[in-house]
Design goal:
Elements lengths: L2 E4 L1 H11 L1 H17 L3 H4 E2 L4 E5 L5 E10 L3 E9 L3 H5 L4 E9 L5 E6 L1 H19 L6 E5 L3 H11 L6 E5 L3 H10 L9 E4 L2 H7 L2 E4 L21 E4 L12 H6 L1 E4 L2 H7 L14 H6 L1 H4 L7 E4 L4 H18 L3 E3 L28 H7 L1 E3 L5 E3 L11
Helix pairs in contact: 1-13, 2-5, 2-13, 5-6, 5-13
Length: about 400
Amino acid sequence: MRTLVLSAEDVAATVRHVGLDALMDEVIAELHEACDDQHGIHNYDVPKREGFSYDNPAVGLLEWMPLLKRDAEAFIKLVGYHPNNPWKRGLPTVLSSLLKFDTTNGHLNVIADGTLATAIRTGAASAVASRILARPDSSKLGLIGAGAQAVTQLHALSRLFPIREVYVSDIDPRVAESFEGRTETLNLSGVSFHVCSANEVARSVDILCTATSVAVGGGPVFEDGALSPSVHINAVGSDFPGKTELPRSLLDRALVCPDYLPQATWEGECQALPPEQLGPDLMQLVRGCSQYAANRTRTTVFDSTGFALEDYVVLGVLERIAQQIGLGFEIDMESRGDPHDPYAGLAGAPGATGRVGMGLVEAMDSGFARNGQGSEVRAVKAGSKGSKP
């Protein structure tokens, strides 16, 4: 049993092989299919994510996002969110790793870089929800927060809607001004870009995406005034208790659809609303798309906190393509020695015994053992202790 490793370069090479548009289209289609599966809710066990938040040595959080596909495999995403990364360390705000396990034996089947995958699946999730809730003729897209997530929001939505104008705002003017240049790989011919204030963005568009690093208690990121009555909003940035992007008055009149209810009520826009005001989650939305499309004439919100099913889907797509074209490499990650002897296979290894051919008990009885550098160290006898599970 070996573990497939997909590094950041392997993931990038996979995307280059199939093309950005083809990959995004496939992730959108497979996420829609996973949500549309009438038995899907019973096939998956998806707890809400948990983690640590901290202020030192830097403001950030580290979370784990598990998923169990019953009778098949388990998945977990480890993700870090550090809003100062771009300008202090030259790193993405979000860094993550994706892992998939065999539930027959616990073997780690795949480990992959999840940073690009996170951005892609977040855009794909907005596209799945927007196809149902936004007007099909939506041509004006607004982006409040013009970082990495904004690029994939534009990409995914441009695959489904006739986007002709993009309105951009960011608290860092340099990020907003550079946004058009960062989208050149998308080949969006005939699209015009406008850099303006957050309020002007919100007033000018058919579809609005908020993807900010606003601080806890720092929202809303725009004012509720003169928005289109039928605007659809993908709220991407709310990912922490007390952190919200949208005005409460807008939420009160909108159909608010969480991606995953237990999580969104804890750390999404839904945390501001009582349960009776919440609309269908993403799975319900997809399975009842004809019914919920009737809301395209009113204000709608997709509360996108990001949940493990989305990451599981994108890893499946990347893994399949990588294996087809021979990308990635395999390693022996786990021990496969005698299941009854944790020291099996260590005989003769430097530091495994006091001297070559000397058993552990003999080494202890002789009063010394040697470390990996050959130095003598005193051996101390101790009572036995069983291995931890």
